[in-house]
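Task card 7
Instruction: Convert sequence to structure tokens.
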Amino acid sequence: MTTYKELFGKYVQNYASDPTSTDAEGQIWYNSTSGTFKTALGSFGAWSAGGTLPVARNGRPGGSGTSTAALIFGGGTPPAGAPVATSLSYNGTSWSPAPSLNTARSYLAGVGTQTSALGFGGYSGGASAATESFNGSAWTSNPTGLNTARFGLGSAGTQTAALAFGGNVPPNSAATESWNGSTWTSVSSLNTARQAIFGAGTSQTAALAFGGYTTAGTGATESWNGSAWTTSPASMNTARRLGSGGGSQTAAIAAGGIPLTSATETWNGTSWTSNPTGLGTARYGGGQVGTQSSFLVPGGYSTVRLDSTELFTRSVVVPVAGSWSSGGSLSNARRNLGGAGTQTAALAFGGIAPGDAISASTEEYDGTSWAAGGNMGTGRGTLSGCGTQTAGLAFGGDTGNDGSNTGITEEYNGSTWTAGGTMSTARRALSGCGIQTAGLAIGGYTTTASSATEEYDGTSWTSGGSLNTARYYPGAAGTQTAGLAFGGTPGSGGTSATESYNGTAWTTVPGSLNTAREGLAGAGISTSALAFGGYTTTFVANTESYNGTSWTTQATMATARNSLAGAGTQTSALAFGGNTPGNTTATEEWTGPSTTLNYKTLTTS
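Output:
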């Protein structure tokens, strides 16, 4: 009898905990702690957040390329969702403008790569036959359009060897056409005429058509061999139309659709399998780019047009979304407090207590609970701080909750506060980052929004470069020579503007917060920051992470609030205190996104 060792080249190992190396894929081991046999498989995938679109877009734009080098074109944007010609390129992190189509349209099809694409069909006040090719620099209209003008069609192939099938003429169409780089030729029709169809296939001779609309949503699946369509006995598990689909004839993916769903399915060449997790936001009419193992869905429509992008990855390594969990509550409820330190060694000081009383109390967090520390010499609210639990810095604020700005600075040694050098510009509602001997004070409020920046050397403050956008109640992260300021208010509503500091000057970066707000908190460094909480026209729990280029929406806090404090890093942060409205003691701990192996417990069933 053949043994497992002979088949796999390894013995069944005995482990107290599951292995974490990707070498474990397909291996079987015995977990002595749980008393089970286990393996690691790449059998399902997970969705995670991608870069946010500059403008919300639905109307199923055309797409080409891969999940890390994508192009989308056409579709519909707010306010009315009218067809557009604009294109966007994606580098795996953020979206940027690309040359526009010559003919604005929505519900079109696309194939090819980011720099060698083909867009065809669509809707532009009626069914369109327009065909355009992209060379990485410009779109060129081809004089020969589709033989059958239509929208909501499926596609497969490349820029010079494409396939178009199905769609709405109207009525529903079964027409199939092949493209040789210059002209379209009608070939054998689909067995089931339909519109709002899903399509997949990297070759003109090996395509897959699935889902769509006949007289209702359908899950019918057909495969193309280069000359004819064959209906598969295996239909999709969720009948639907106008979702996002892609991949190849033997490894396809379908996500979202109408009826509004987040359902995700994968095709192995024979049957459809429902993925255990669906899109984070149920949607239809989004873009579609990539392969079954790395698939991108930008935009779409849920109850509103969406600007979010979601990425599906299928691997033995699967992403785990970041999350907030409850921590130990502050002993003293307060808002507009200062914060410093890390998730397991944080410092909370000052703030405004219930009844609008000014607080001088200090609390220290050990990762589980808060304990009293030494009181500040001068109690104040709307102050800021930086540093560590044993070397903290508090500066600025309001000593009477009456608009009395101060430049008072105090230094904490782990037990007591002592006076430091006074700030040059007295102010409140400011932010800060850095350490006790190299701190940065950012923005704030004097008699109006301030752009002032000051640098602390452990003894005194000196003026630094001014913010490009004067603001108060901003968030901040980083160090004195590599700082980040985001959000806040210039005086009328929150801003999404983000600026980076190099120790001399501030630069406005293209990546703005997805949610403009004030009174938020921050953690991390300038190229790996976290923003959370704040106020728009209401209290928010929104969380966003920054990678040095763009902000990505993450899981929300349990308690929506503004005027809170933060500490820690992008992957291990702490949020505490704030206004809900009403002062709160709530503390939440953030665990950032991570990856894990796709473990599977083996059973006899």
